[in-house]
Design a protein that fits this description.
Length: about 325
């Protein structure tokens, strides 16, 4: 992933880190006791402001702005956390940083005016209390951003601007097997439906081009609102990523889906997504050939022919665009 987001400290961790840093500050000997206390407490307030705000400001800077990232990542974040909630959490963190800076400025100004040592300490403690309240006030936002950071770090490493072949089709028609056959990835595929739990990425050299292969989770033939998260991720890939679709269709009867169901999904994808769709028959080793392009990921029958079709597709699309 291109996003390098720092660790998100929780509210209690920020408070503990800042207070410990401030407690270590001691002003050198000064013959005027009140002046020593004044400088020491000003330094402690400034230290808390610096430690807290540098962390909060860094979070706001390093988390990707939802409006500035590619729609592929934007939609995944929106799907998992909500676009508005994500933006609001970052805004609240920015507010907290600005609030702490203002509180520190006011506290230091007030400390400078105090003449008694106990009043100086009292003013510093007052700042500590306000600082803790501000940080505790964004506790929920920090928890959400920490979870979001982990999520973003695990997003599929897709280059949304690089051409890709998106492998699609109903579950158990051979999508993961084709990815392994084309990209050479050492990946075990169990012969059960829904074995592909997340989007998987591979690469293949086709002619002079190195292109992405994206294995999507199974897309069931149901309305969008009835689809589960795994299916929606596949749809996001189809919608947002620049490339062509390799639609796999199984005539062997081993996938658990009828030809009518597969044809329905094929027509749905062709009608809803503005992409070229290459129709490929899989498992040709255990079924009669019925399609123009037929392959077997078991004995690699038809793989070379498929690569030639993909190469022609790349050149044609690159010229068109």
């Amino acid at each position: 992933m291109i996003f390098k987001i720092p660790t998100v400290l929780m509210a209690d961790e920020i408070i503990d880190k800042c207070l410990r840093k401030a407690s270590k500050i001691e002003e050198p000997y000064n013959p005027i006791f009140e002046e020593k206390v004044r400088r020491e407490n000003i330094s402690r307030v400034a230290a808390i402001e610096s430690a807290a705000c540098s962390h909060l400001d860094r979070l706001v800077k390093k988390f990707p702005g939802i409006e500035r990232i590619h729609p592929f990542y934007e939609d995944l974040i929106d799907l998992s956390y909500g676009r508005d909630k994500y933006k609001e959490s970052l805004s609240r963190v920015m507010w907290a940083s600005n609030k702490i800076k203002n509180l520190a400025t006011e506290s230091i100004r007030s400390i400078k005016k105090k003449r008694k040592a106990f009043l100086i300490v009292e003013e510093r403690k007052k700042f500590y209390g306000r600082f803790c309240s501000v940080i505790e006030g964004i506790s929920d936002e920090l928890v959400l951003l920490n979870s979001c950071r982990d999520f973003i770090r695990k997003l599929p490493d897709v280059d949304p601007d690089e051409w890709a072949f998106i492998i699609s089709g109903l579950p158990n028609v051979g999508k993961s097997s084709l990815l392994s056959a084309l990209s050479g990835t050492d990946e075990k595929v169990a012969p059960y439906p829904f074995t592909t739990q997340t989007v998987k990425i591979g690469h293949v050299q086709i002619g002079y081009s190195r292109v992405q292969l994206i294995d999507t989770p199974g897309i069931l033939d149901r309305p969008m609102e009835e689809r589960n998260e795994m299916e929606r991720k596949a749809i996001l890939c189809l919608k947002d990523i620049k490339g062509s679709i390799l639609f796999l269709i199984d005539h062997s009867g081993t996938s658990g889906y009828s030809m009518e169901e597969q044809e329905h999904l094929y027509n749905e994808i062709k009608s809803k997504f503005m992409k070229n769709v290459i129709r490929i028959q899989t498992k040709s080793d255990i079924s009669e050939k019925k399609e123009n392009i037929a392959i077997s990921s078991v004995n690699y029958t038809g793989i070379d022919e498929l690569l030639k079709v993909m190469e022609n597709e790349i050149h044609g699309l690159q010229v068109a665009h």
